[in-house]
């Protein structure tokens, strides 16, 4: 079922969903089931599966020479989605990224998804490879999420690359895009970033999932701005509790967000990592209760392979 239908059927009740990473190459799918099982009692209508672009590693040969090889650490987004649908009978939402794919490969992947009965996709530009200082599009691939979105919209209208046959099968994907309440880090300002978000919505995005945030006033300002500018699709808050003191540095550095002073001071006053975890969970419980009161359609958690903090929060909130 489409995410927009799940939200509509909930009649204003806030839903719960989460995101997982596919298994590291060489790990079994059971590692993913172990991360999902503890959360299934809360009836998530859908589970997102991220996509990781390939990176380069250097392989040493016996003669000492180094060879640069492309390597994808977590290669199985589509198969992980299929395994989730098969085992849990819930919707799985693959993230589709521009980086690492030609347009042809993207189109073929979308056809696979359609045949697997997948109704939703979250379209993204994707992160830069760790070995690159900024995002480099794949030759013959899409450069921005809006280009990838347009591709999916074309297929929803029966228009495929290189073929404009009148009787082409129309796909029917419900399409999500990313939004950044605190601005995407490459954007010169919030206004420019918002302009491109609006472009994605005008092209046909059906829902927005936000970058994580720790200050609900940022989410509220973002939603208010969207509504004031004619964006009326669901805006799903993306959430992650703070679980370790090092995240005071790593989360702002990686995700370009602000940690409110009250939270950072509370973390700095902790005497152990266990205490930090408790502070982070309590903060997120409070955030979630407020978001429900604000009418957030879904609380969407970035679990990062560890379901336990999310489980504690959802138990306290619903
Ligand atoms: P875009 O919308 O393309 O925007 C990228 C930048 O370019 C922004 O600064 C924007 O303002 C600007 N811009 C947009 N369109 C144009 C244009 N036409 N011309 C000029 N400038 C433009 N990354 C992964 O690799 N895998 C994942 O699975 C993944 N999942 C994510 C899920 C969520 C909910 C979020 C919020 C992020 C996720 N990311 C993931 C990270 C994401 O790929 C990065 O933040 C990436 O840097 C930007 O992606 P985007 O889709 O927002 O890009």
Automatic annotation (TrEMBL):
Top EC class for this record: oxidoreductase
GO aspect biological process, one term: tetrahydrofolate interconversion
Named cofactor requirement(s): FAD
Keyword S-adenosyl-L-methionine among record annotations: no
Cited SUPFAM superfamilies: FAD-linked oxidoreductase
Catalytic activities: (6S)-5-methyl-5,6,7,8-tetrahydrofolate + NAD(+) = (6R)-5,10-methylene-5,6,7,8-tetrahydrofolate + NADH + H(+)
GO CC annotation, single: cytosol
Keyword annotations: Amino-acid biosynthesis, FAD, Flavoprotein, Methionine biosynthesis, NAD, Oxidoreductase
GO terms, molecular function: FAD binding; methylenetetrahydrofolate reductase (NADH) activity
Pathway assigned to this chain's UniProt record: One-carbon metabolism; tetrahydrofolate interconversion; Amino-acid biosynthesis; L-methionine biosynthesis via de novo pathway
EC number(s) stated in the UniProt entry for this protein: 1.5.1.54
Sequence similarity: Belongs to the methylenetetrahydrofolate reductase family.
Name of protein: Methylenetetrahydrofolate reductase
Organism: Parapedobacter composti
